Amino acid sequence: MAMSATMYSAVVATSYEKSALILAALTFVEKVAGINLDAYNVTYECKGPIGCILYRGYTETLIDVDLIRVTDHLEIGIEFIDNYLVSYRLESRGSLPILNSDEPLDAFDRAKEALGQYQLAFDVPYCSQLAAMIDHVTTIDRKQTIKDDCVILNFNPNASLDRWVDFGWQYEGALRKNMHVCINKDGGFLEMFKDRWGLARISDVKISVSEEMAVVKALDRARDYILELGATVTKIESELRYINSYPKARGGDCFILYPTWVVKLFFDKSYDGVHGYFVGIWADTGYVRTAMPQGSSWGPPPPVSSEHSYTLPIGVITISLITVFGAVILTKRARKKSGD
Length: 340
Description:
The protein has six helices and 15 strands. By secondary structure, it is of the alpha+beta class. It starts with 17 loop residues before the first helix and ends in a 10-residue tail after the last helix.
């Protein structure tokens, strides 16, 4: 039996009750995706709530919505973590979705419309800033990156094997604080939607470790390994990222992201597949979070340059000596400013 839009309102669930989440899911399908539910026979299945293994302390619910009309079949999967809708995916087996409006919209206007409806229906104020950035995309046939304050919009007109126009937002340095609005290129409808922007929060801890201090600490941590390997460090890259661990989260909440200095030490060549050393350091406490050799994921080792390289001496290296090395290289190193 088809469900009328008047049967539910745009309310985000505040508990784990299945009925409330189903209500929110159908609201998203009609209001945000813009699908005319009256044109279909609507059935749904709620899988959960279940405790997340990765996201300890949170509850995950999966809702499958089937829209059937004669030989047409739309399969929709929607995921909630607690009361947050974090993903929507539509697969069409038959004709294109029947939308509430017949007005043709290009991918840009369709994405802005989806964000606007999402903001109204689910009370997500950050959509205003994200939607406004779409107007600054100046090309429709190639990738483009736009930055506004700490927000980065990555526009990709040929995503998913040329199937989607993808608008992807990311908080600078925080991969897990992101949103994606993907418009189907053939049908002009919302095919995929991801929102972890509101779920992930940036911690308000004070950054007390400078970039230079982090590089020195990374060199000190990697010292014994580099000496044993006999390697030469030819390049250092460092950047500030906001991350947390899954499932053993710092602070007990995996969606609170903490500032971390990520330092990569590149070697002059590959040593049995090892091209460098990776060190992650909490930028507020100075504790080493992660330290490990790195292989081919970084690509081939950079060319050796006497201006950018140094070889760690054999024997005991003092902190002061490491500081000197770090200071020299910091003035020359290549900087990489991308997110986690």
